[in-house]
Amino acid sequence: VARPHVVIVGAGFGGIDCAKELVNEPVDVTIVDRHNFHTFQPLLYQVATAGLSSSDVAYPVRGIFQDATNVRFRTGTVTGVDFDAKRLAMADGTDLSYDTLVLALGATTNWFGVDGAAEHAFPLYGLEDAIRVRNHVITQFEHADSDARLLEGGALTFVVLGGGPTGVETAGALTELFGMVFAKDFRRLDVGAARVVLVEMTDAVLGPFSGRAQRHAREQLQRRGVDVRLGERVTAVGPDSVTLASGEVLPTRTVVWAAGVRANPLADVLDVEQGRGGRIVVTRDLRIPSHPEVFVLGDLAAIEGAGGALLPQVAQVAKQSGKYVGKHIARDRRGRTSGAFRYRDKGTMATIGRNAAVADLPLHIRLTGFVAWVAWLFLHLLYLVGFRNRLSVLVSWGWSYLTWDRGPRLIIEPVDVTSPAQANRPER
Ligand SMILES: Cc1cc2nc3c(=O)[nH]c(=O)nc-3n(C[C@H](O)[C@H](O)[C@H](O)COP(=O)(O)OP(=O)(O)OC[C@H]3O[C@@H](n4cnc5c(N)ncnc54)[C@H](O)[C@@H]3O)c2cc1C
User: How far apart are alpha carbons 296 and 294 in whole angstroms?
Assistant: First the structure.
């Protein structure tokens, strides 16, 4: 008897957890991703700031499902879906048929239409982005070391846009990298002149967190030397400067864009209803209303929470919705029904740097400082995919903590197979 073919597009948190639920179930599963690896996005900023190697935060998808005989993997970029023919179109001109489809393509950078942002700012969404930021930041120091006059042109001014967890973590890690490591690496350079400016539109960093966490994060950032600009917006990004809404022009060659996300652009071409941020509107059991054989999960789905507001685009929502959809498909196969998806909020955390983090946990437990930092380290290790990665990250963190050193301060120009335009972007 032919077994139904379940195609999962996207090997992120949601797609992987969905596939795990289908291992050894009476279905054939194909996971498709444009990369042959899963990326642990919450630690990308550590790759960007030379804290971890790229292989620490990524894991080959085939390795995850080595022992799962009913799960296959295929590298490829999906460019469209023919819902009537139940077929995916791939960028290489081939196609792939499915009986049940799971769309778990995640989100991408939202430039919010800011002039020059897409051309000149550095996104931090994938592994290539993180390596590109690392290359660029270290290159600025190398250039300034050769020619100190570059400092006046803002070579060592680093603007981080967006005061959410990614922006806070990146700004904190950059100041630590400069003070802890570059001050020793670049002995002839006045590394103290390097500035990190964090620009946030609202009047607090870490918007969704408690007031206590927000205050703690801001104080810690400022204590570490980050210039925190609240209630400020960037209106234009150029190759050598950013313009703020207040009219101030900051000379800089580095704008790290951590300002927001929107749904994967594939959502825009599917002719389905989209909600806020381009996310695909789904039923309470995470299907597309007009195509019940298609599930959508994680960052790509507009999932309503208990209060009616959309659930945040975070790892826990992706993992729980992935698991739910996997179980749902397995139950369907057995002729059993499934209730609506229910999200269990396990809290949220962000780190500012050495010994400093914030964690808002269920039951109004609020942690700050060292305790929150240890909790943050522990949870990130726990959720990393692959024992080897966990061990390697543990060793890297332990080494950095004890020696005040950092690991891969390497300038390696990546070959970006997904975006030739970006790969050929000249180094500024
Ligand atoms: C820098 C950064 C830091 C973050 N930090 C945190 C954090 O600290 N805590 C937290 O909870 N959340 C964090 N998040 C959010 C969290 O990572 C996401 O919510 C989560 O990854 C969403 O999972 P997903 O499975 O929906 O999508 P993703 O994990 O984004 O996976 C999508 C997958 O789809 C693939 N794909 C995309 N388009 C195509 C295509 N056309 N064809 C084939 N494959 C495709 C991608 O390669 C990717 O593997 C962070 C995100 C970023 C970018």
Answer: 7
Residue closest via CA to ligand 1's atom 12 equals 314
pLDDT for the residue 1 = 66
Distance CA 92, CA 32 (A): 13
- Mean per-residue pLDDT over the chain, rounded: 93
Element containing residue 131 per DSSP (H, E): helix 127-146
Give every CB contact of residue 124 below 8 A, 6+ residues apart in sequence: 44, 45, 48, 130, 133, 166, 170, 256, 257, 258
Ligand 1 and 164: CB distance under 6 A: no
Q: How many angstroms does the Cα of residue 10 sit away from the middle of ligand 1?
A: 9
The model's pLDDT over 1-20, given as tens digits with 9 standing for 90+, comes to: 689 999 999 999 999 999 99
Active site residue 169: yes
Q: Is the CB of 75 under 6 A from ligand 1?
A: no
* Rounded Cα gap, residues 403 and 309, in angstroms: 45
Q: With beta carbons less than 8 A apart as the criterion, state whether 235 and 244 touch.
A: yes
Q: CA nearest 106: which of 40, 166, 60, 58? A: 40
Q: Are 167 and 259 in contact (CB under 8 A)?
A: yes
Q: How far is the CA of 107 from the centre of ligand 1 (A)?
A: 6
Ligand 1 nearest atom to the CA of residue 130, by list position: 1
371-395 confidence digits (pLDDT tens): 999 999 999 999 988 888 899 999 9
User: Which of 47, 105, 310, 319 gets mutated to test ligand 1 (max ligand atoms within 8 A of its CB)?
Assistant: 105
Which string of DSSP letters, residue by residue, matches 265-303? GGGGGS---B-GGGPEE--TTSEETTEEEEEE-GGGEE-
Rg (CA), the chain: 22
From the CA of 315, give the closest atom in ligand 1.
Answer: 11
Say what the pTM is.
Answer: 0.94
Q: How far is the CA of 2 from the centre of ligand 1 (A)?
A: 33
Geometric angle at alpha carbon 187, from 183 and 193, rounded to 5°: 55
Closest residue by CA, ligand 1 atom 6: 42
Distance of CA 39 from the midpoint of ligand 1 (Å) = 7
Q: Which residue has the tokens 């290539």?
A: 128
**Residue 259, both tokens:** 């300002």
